[in-house]
Specification:
heterodimer; A: alpha/beta; 9% strand; B: alpha/beta; ten-stranded mixed sheet; 42% helix
């Protein structure tokens, strides 16, 4: 809908529609318990894969700058604090629209590419303000709904919250699942809950937050990922940022493999969003490498990859400046968000 | 490409590692290297030596000396001169030296990693992340063994000068595996790196000397096969340690036969990679990458035979092919590649030929579109499916990035297919069911088994093969023993010739009641069997009295006995308690008939009755010793640096031949057979040719002691002939030969067919009455082979 500005000017070069664009949504499927029962995840093997990958792949120089710019277009620039105010949210929106200093983009030959972040992500209370602040920028607003972060409000209250956020203009809704359903193996309940959330979202895309830090085992993560996809999630997302452990390469590997499995069996592409703890350029490059290696090129674009982050952007800006000037940069040389 | 183009393509782009330090080191030596002997480089004369190439480009890297017998002489002399002071240095002193080597490797890690990548063609990622860290770890670990030598290896001494010949696939790592234990335990070394890849060994020797390693302790002689032969044949060398092809390993076994040199061989493999239907399939796919596309597949323990359960084969293979699409083949110094160059065009041609043959024999070829660099020695990741066990590519080691895949239906069939190989180096099992995985691991004929993992290595966990993958272990305590000799055996003297036996006296007794004829038969498969040749030999007592006749066993009797031993595999699976009970029961029944056996010994050998009684008592005690050990000679649980365990399990060799000597005929025979059967081996025994009746008297003892049929088979006859039949029987897994020096030499020479595990005495006489030399762990170590089962865990 609104993301045209993120898409390249030259449509021949790249015609990957951003999230909210023309990509077919995941329509979901009936709950398949047999599939879940066959899920096997070997922790040690998964650890070896994520430990080995950063040594196997790296991007340097111009390629690295390009990958970091791409990462910016995938950031859900986020503020989810108890002390958020409208002023704070508007400042964040301004940063989302102009994430990198113009002179740097110029030096990189990228000033005409309309680089913005992938979205701004806020609590329901600030959706309207953010929509207003981002008017005409093409940057969508994502709302965390469903009694974020614990998700333990009454079910109908959570549905009402989703509807309210959509009504205020949020085009993406990040929901939290009821962890109890996973921990007790009540897959039907998880499926039904997710189905209802998805229905309440209407045209808005829905990202299912699994809170992987609460789920503990990789098997739980894999099964919860599959159930949410079966119930129609457009994205699966690791964390609220409030659990003891947030996004890690390890849970990422498992969730990406679930996405791949789901794609192989249904043909539907589901997106992935790690959130929490990704704060350096080096971190995000490793996530991008994981995406490319495990899922392939389409999953590097914002319609299938988002990173929930607040401080990541400023580290990327410093790295880009270093790339342009050859000198190490400082935070105060880049606009605050 | 510029930033915009990368932004659109999201390609990786080049990520080269700087090689200037390595090139500078080469230049500092004018790209010419003589041997490194006695702490310094020998000059390389004009016109001498051979060129070594960079596999990724085909360009000449350096000119290297080609070692002659004279060079080897010089190196051995330097090593010999250094050995005594090196061994006399305290364990702590040697520990300090090894510690310094470990630190040196870490200090120069980058230079070593880059030089290795240039010289071998392997990715610098691997040399940096795998080879060099493992090298450092090996020296740290073995600094520890040096420190603990007096405490942990009391009663053992260093062997002396060790000749070590290493391959080109892991030049520096194999150097570490070889020299770290040798030096730690007080030996000195003459090392020959592979012809293709000598440079890191030369650099290492130079850096080691800078780090204070005394001159002569480590000598590097470069060259090809002839240089290797000069080392193998050198009389001043006490042990040969070789890693390389099975073909060359066989030749070394043959050339060292009878020389008294100790030998360890780490040879080829065709290791199975077994994927059960309950495996984490994505993990297993990644496992294949680590199994066969690690080091371009030039790995002796590469998981090159994929066995996948039929029901999941389509999905597994389709995921594997998809994974192959993302593998990147490129310049070794590019930090973002999975595979570099094949070591040499000769190897490349061999890989090509075998793959073509595989396709001709019916396999379906899969390679990705990604392609490989156009110049240099490269081969793409390759998968051959629809391969049947009879295909050449399923049986021969390809030593390249080529996996072959076939299916199985049941766990039994997986084991059968996995073991359907002449090799037995490693195996990998993928299943999320602990009961299944741990049931399969002991059933595989392999020295290393990885559960839900592959190609894991650690200095503290022994590595080495079963079957034609060689013998001996590298790493850990079991590896340390390969560089030590037992003092109790070291002092053995050549066996004294026994006086000629008297002429048989006529046993004619006129018309008196004749002696009831007793012609002992052979004992095969629990039954007394008439010899195939239907011949017999007369056994006379010390005074010339004819005491009876025994069967004259021949080649076919050996065949039958080995077959019976093979069939008695239940014994290898029997509980250790059960095996102990039977050994005690044998002692009990022997005790009951003690006077009878003592009388027989006295009549046969002419010793006095008290001496004969002492021998019988010693036999009873010996049976007790091994009854006791049956459930106590345990393996070990290693703690390698991962969340998990490595179980070092002592497994029986399988079927073992025994040639027993003449001295103390009952005690020596039991001293050899008891440790073997205590550990679960099944034996084919050729008793003393002079005193075979002492063995044939045992038949009834075996029968009354519940010893299962086929566990001990006895073939009487001429040892000089029968040793050949035993040594050249390819279904016999081990052979112990005690007796004349020539018997040992013949046995070693003929054992090359299936590379038997050998224990021979080279004509040296063992003091069987002394428990220090006649029983215990000395023998038990040879009665088992260690299997290391790696079990990473976690949920």
């Amino acid at each position: 809908m609104q993301l045209q500005a993120v898409a390249p000017r030259d449509e021949k070069e790249r015609s990957v529609p951003a999230h909210g664009g023309n990509a077919p949504r995941n329509e979901g499927m009936p709950l398949d318990l047999g599939w879940l029962g066959g899920v096997r995840v070997n922790l040690s093997a998964a650890e070896r894969r994520v430990a080995g990958l950063p040594g196997r792949r790296t991007v340097k120089k111009d390629a690295q700058a390009a990958w970091l710019l791409k990462a910016i277009t995938c950031i859900d620039l986020t503020t989810l604090s108890g002390d958020d105010t409208e002023g704070r949210v508007r400042r964040l929106c301004a940063k989302a629209v102009t994430p990198v200093r113009h002179d740097l983009l110029e030096a990189l030959g990228m000033s005409e590419r309309g680089i913005t972040t992938g979205a701004v992500c806020v609590y329901h209370r600030f959706v309207a303000a953010a929509v207003d602040a981002l008017q005409g920028s093409g940057v969508p607003v994502a709302a965390v709904s469903t009694a974020f972060p614990a998700g333990l409000a009454p079910h109908d209250v959570k549905l009402r919250e989703i509807e309210a956020s959509v009504a205020d203009g949020a085009s993406e809704i990040d929901i939290v699942i009821t962890r109890e359903h996973v921990l007790t193996g009540n897959w039907q309940a998880l499926y039904d809950e997710m189905r209802d959330f998805r229905a309440a979202c209407g045209a808005a895309h829905v990202k299912a937050i699994l809170a992987t830090g609460d789920l503990k085992t990789l098997r739980n993560v894999a099964r919860a990922s599959l159930v949410c996809m079966m119930a129609g999630a457009d994205f699966i997302k690791t964390s609220t940022g409030k659990e003891g452990v947030n996004a890690t390469p390890l849970v990422t590997l498992v969730m990406l493999r679930a996405i791949r499995d789901y794609h192989e069996r249904t043909g539907s592409k589901v997106g992935y969003k790690p959130a929490g703890g990704i704060s350096t350029a080096k971190d995000v490059l490793n996530y991008q490498i994981l995406m490319k290696e495990e899922l392939g090129r389409p999953w590097l674009e914002p319609d299938l990859f988002r990173v929930g982050a607040s401080s990541l952007l400023s580290d990327i800006e410093r790295q880009l400046e270093h790339h342009v000037t050859g000198r190490y940069s400082a935070f105060n040389r880049h606009a605050a968000g | 490409m510029n930033v915009q183009q990368f932004f659109d393509s999201m390609d990786y782009g080049p990520a080269p590692e700087a090689d200037s330090a390595a090139r500078e080191w080469l230049a500092r030596h004018d790209n010419r290297f003589g041997h490194f002997i006695d702490g310094k480089f020998k000059p390389l004369k004009e016109g001498e030596g051979f060129d070594t190439f960079e596999p990724a480009t085909g360009k000449i890297l350096a000119r290297i000396a080609n070692g002659t017998a004279t060079d080897v002489d010089e190196a051995v002399a330097a090593a010999r001169a250094a050995q005594e002071p090196w061994a006399k240095l305290s364990g702590h002193g040697r520990a300090r030296h090894l510690y310094a080597l470990a630190r040196m490797v870490q200090r120069h890690g980058r230079l070593l990693a880059v030089l290795e990548a240039i010289d071998n063609g392997k990715p610098v990622r691997e040399t940096r992340d795998i080879d060099v860290p493992l090298v450092a770890r090996h020296f740290y670990h073995h600094a520890g063994w040096a420190q603990l030598q007096d405490a942990e290896f009391a009663g053992y001494s260093p062997l002396g000068v060790v000749g070590q010949i290493i391959p080109w696939n892991f030049p520096l790592l194999m150097l570490a595996w070889k020299i770290a234990p040798a030096l730690a335990l007080g030996n000195t070394v003459v090392l020959k790196p592979a012809e293709y890849t000598s440079l890191t060994a030369l650099l290492f020797a130079e850096l080691a000397t800078e780090a204070g390693l005394p001159a002569g302790v480590l000598n590097v002689v470069t060259g090809g096969g002839e240089t290797g032969e000069a080392i193998v044949d050198h009389p001043g060398i006490d042990k040969i340690a070789f890693t390389g092809s099975t073909e060359v390993g066989r030749r070394i076994r043959e050339r060292t036969a009878g020389s008294g040199k100790r030998l360890t061989l780490e040879l080829g493999g065709k290791s199975p990679f077994i994927v059960f239907e309950d495996a984490d399939l994505d993990a297993a796919v990644e496992g294949v990458v680590d199994a066969i596309w690690f080091n371009q597949g030039q790995v002796c323990c590469a998981g090159s035979r994929i066995l996948v359960q039929e029901g999941i084969a389509p999905i597994f293979l389709s995921r594997l092919k998809k994974r192959m699409e993302t593998l990147r083949v490129g310049q070794p110094l590019d930090k973002a590649i999975d595979m570099g160059a094949i070591v040499d065009p000769v190897q490349l041609a061999r890989i090509r030929e075998l793959v073509e043959l595989g396709v001709k024999e019916g396999a379906t070829l899969f390679q990705t579109e990604a392609g490989v660099p156009e110049t240099g020695s490269f081969f793409p990741p390759t998968l051959l499916t629809d391969v049947h066990p009879a295909a050449t590519v399923a049986r021969e080691e390809i030593f390249g990035p080529v996996a072959v895949a076939m299916t199985f239906r049941t766990p039994d069939e997986a084991v059968m297919l996995a073991n359907n190989s002449r090799y037995g180096l490693a195996a990998s099992i993928w299943s999320e069911t602990i009961g299944l995985a741990l049931d399969i691991a002991p059933k595989l004929a392999a020295g290393v088994v990885w559960v839900n993992a592959t190609n894991l290595f650690d200095a503290g966990v022994g590595f080495g093969g079963y079957r034609e993958s060689g013998f001996g272990r590298e790493g850990g305590r079991e590896g340390a023993y390969e560089y030590l000799k037992a003092d109790a055996w070291a002092k053995r003297k050549p066996r004294e010739e026994l006086p000629a036996q008297p002429e048989p006296k006529s046993s004619a007794s006129g018309f008196g009641l004749p002696v009831l004829d007793r012609t002992a038969k052979l004992f095969i498969g629990g039954k007394q069997a008439r010899p195939d040749g239907n011949g017999s030999r007369v056994v006379v007592g010390a005074d010339g009295t004819v005491l009876g006749e025994v069967g004259e066993g021949n080649r076919k009797d050996i065949r039958n006995a080995v077959e019976a031993a093979r069939k008695a595999e239940g014994w290898s699976r029997a509980s250790t308690h059960n095996r102990a009970q039977i050994l005690y029961y044998l002692a009990e029944n022997l005790s009951a008939r003690g006077p009878e056996f003592a009388a027989r010994i006295a009549r046969l050998t002419g010793v006095g009755s008290s001496e004969a009684e002492r021998e019988v008592e010693a036999v009873i005690s010996r049976l007790f010793t091994y009854g006791a050990y049956a459930d106590k000679f345990d393996g070990a649980v290693h703690s390698p640096p991962l969340r998990g365990l490595a179980l070092a399990i002592n497994e029986p060799l399988g079927t073992v031949g025994v040639i027993a000597p003449d001295e103390m005929p009952l005690l020596s025979l039991v001293s050899l057979v008891a440790p073997l059967i205590a550990m679960g081996n099944r034996t084919v025994v050729v008793p003393s040719a002079r005193y075979p009746l002492i063995a044939t008297d045992l038949y009834q003892l075996f029968e009354t002691s519940d010893l299962p049929a086929g566990v001990v088979n006895i073939v009487t006859g001429e040892p000089k002939a029968l040793v050949k039949d035993l040594a050249s029987h390819d279904d016999l897994d081990g052979l112990w030969v005690f007796g004349g020096k020539d018997l040992s030499a013949t046995a070693e020479r003929l054992s090359v067919g299936n590379l038997k595990r050998m224990l021979v005495d080279h004509g040296l006489q063992t003091d069987w009455l002394d428990p220090a030399s006649g029983e215990g762990r000395l023998f038990l170590h040879h009665a088992v082979q260690v299997k290391n089962i790696w079990i990473p865990y976690g949920d």
